[in-house]
Design a protein that fits this description.
This protein has about 325 residues and is mostly beta strands. Helix content is about 10%, strand content about 50%.
Length: about 325
Amino acid sequence: MPTALNLIRHALAASLVICTSADAQLFRAYLSGSGSDASACTLPAPCRLLPAALNAVASGGEIWMLDSANYNAGTVNIAKSVSILAVPGVVGSLVATGGPAIEVSTPGLTIALRNLVIAPAVTLPPGTFGVRVNISSGVASTISIEDSVIAGIPLSGVIAAGAVRLKVAGATVRQAGNFAFELLDGAEAAISSTYMLNNGGGVAAGSSMPGKTTTATVSDSVISGFNYGVTAQADASGAAARISVTRSTIERTSRALESHAIGGGSTEVDVGSSLIVDNEYAWYQYGTNGLILSLGNNQLSGNTGSFGTKTPMPPM
């Protein structure tokens, strides 16, 4: 018959097991180029690859990359709220191979990516996107990208569709095959202090779904080179897309400002306090429901021409 002392011992042992399980979820997990995924992902015993750290960190926690190295071997699926950052002075690299470097499809998350470099690996099969976020239903997920570089991605640097709030500050996206930022079917983006260089296009906001409005703001940024600067496109009745540009430069593109509405969709591109220079088309307005609105304080020079109508927008 168990004694009272033995019962107390068993209860204590059970409580220790429960505590150990809870403690396995770290507030802050660590990665190192010399780490091991068999380690605990703590500062004295860092892990090696990002998926291991995601398993170890608690929802709402942080993952720190301690030294310059590559931290993934394939697409990293993020399914919890987390901040992922490389400490200042190191290169926290993620490669896009066979797909996106980072994928998010879970609603209701808050994810921050800071001081990262995302690029393809020349010795591995090419990837698709740098970051792909697709939230088809539910509460919107918020994705922040800060002080990061996305380079040489075959398709778009970042693609976001559905219930997504994208916030970008201090980033550089260069030499993406499609767009630096591609937003679809209800996604929202606020892009500031960002360089978009020699991509297929800068920012695209598109909607093909009735009742879905895709929006983007671009401020204090530079878009340079190739096909599109910013383009808002909608091609279904009740679908809408809108982009607002302020204090930014768009230069050496085919179409600096494009508003393209067909099939009953509506689009709007607003621009103020910006430099539009040396483009083939300063603006390209297509369709009755496609608007290009100018505050009137922009500087346009060296552009070959324009297409459609630019509408003056009165100051508030």
